[in-house]
């Protein structure tokens, strides 16, 4: 059994054609999988199903053999927008998932400080979100998602609004954090190069279905120089060809 099992999952909204249709997908523990597709193909809906924010109308989703019925501490979710609380300091935003359960302990506060340090934000713990750049806010959102040490991290185009250099830095930060914790990841993006750089495997989605699965045979740990290599660009071309084929 895989770490995350998505079996014949379908979902639609009333009066709409199927948004997710008979999707099968498996993710092994510690792997990083990316989901790409054109706007409206159903990838964000599938991510919400994996998080327990929506419930499949057919099929099942299991995490470590147990049905995913609702969001919980075993899941971390990073949205397209950082969605930070403007009236909270950075450290309080990171500790929010803890604060919803109990008053943070000294050890938990220390863990939050360590996460911020790993993400280059050690000096910003007492700042407010309005004092941060977009990239810094995204790093805070990532730290918040990791504070409970979730076994599965789900991300929905979290770097889409950032400039190319900041996005590349955050991709490297994300890979490092997940490697340190052996976190399993499902990452939604419309950016082919981002999917190939991050992913062990890339799924191409079209009209609610997974239409192609591409294993990324590029060595780890990933490094920025790989983006210019033959293997990286060959995989990008494979993903692009799969997307173009299904759009035809």
Q: How would you concisely characterize the structure shown here?
A:
Helix content is 35%, strand content 23%. It is α/β, with parallel strands linked by helices and 248 residues long.
Structural notes for this entry:
The structure is a single chain. The chain is an alpha/beta fold. It has a domain at 80-149. The chain is 35% helix and 23% strand. The chain is built from eight helices and ten strands. It has helices spanning 43-51, 90-94, 96-99, 106-118, 134-146, 164-181, 192-198, 230-247; strands at residues 4-11, 20-27, 32-36, 58-63, 66-67, 75-78, 152-156, 184-189, 201-206, 209-215. The strands form two sheets. Strands 6-7-8-3-9-10 form a six-stranded mixed β-sheet, sandwiched between helices. The protein has a four-stranded antiparallel β-sheet with strand order 2-1-4-5, covered by helices on one side. The longest helix is centred in the last third of the chain and has 18 residues, at 164-181. The radius of gyration is 18 Å and the shape is globular. It starts with a strand and ends with a helix. The mean pLDDT is 93.
